[in-house]
Amino acid sequence: MRVRKITDVIGLKAFTDSGDFFGQVEEANLVDNKIDGWRIKVGGSIISLIGGARGVIIPHQFVKAISDVFIINKTALPIPPETELEEPVPSDLV
Fold it and tell me: Most exposed: 40, 48, 62, 83, by fewest CB within 10 Å?
């Protein structure tokens, strides 16, 4: 396994582990000289899922692989929980 420089990772395309395009890596967040998270500029259809935000920070523990592309775990995405549709109450129970 080859060790990569952070500058080599900046600009890589980011995908989810299910193969969906997520965005582009913009920056690494360091804490005590270790990578804590990654700032990713969101692109594609994911923008509508995260409320129109232009970027998100993904904790490093949710990164699955870094090579020619950046792979993140889909469970790490800050997607709001889906709202449940209320079922209509039958008129005979009201």
Answer: 83
Distance between CA atoms of 36 and 82, rounded to whole angstroms?
A: 28
pLDDT of residue 39: 94
Is the alpha carbon torsion for 6, 7, 10, 13 positive or negative?
negative
DSSP SS3 for 87: coil
Q: Give the domains, in start order, of the chain with CATH numbers.
A: 6-73 (2.30.30.240)
DSSP string, 43-65: -TTHHHHTTT-SEEEEEGGGEEE
The pLDDT score that the predictor gives to residue 46 is 72
**pLDDT tens-digit readout, 50-69:** 777 788 899 999 999 998 99
Q: State both tokens at 63.
A: 């990164």
Note if the pTM is more than 0.70: yes
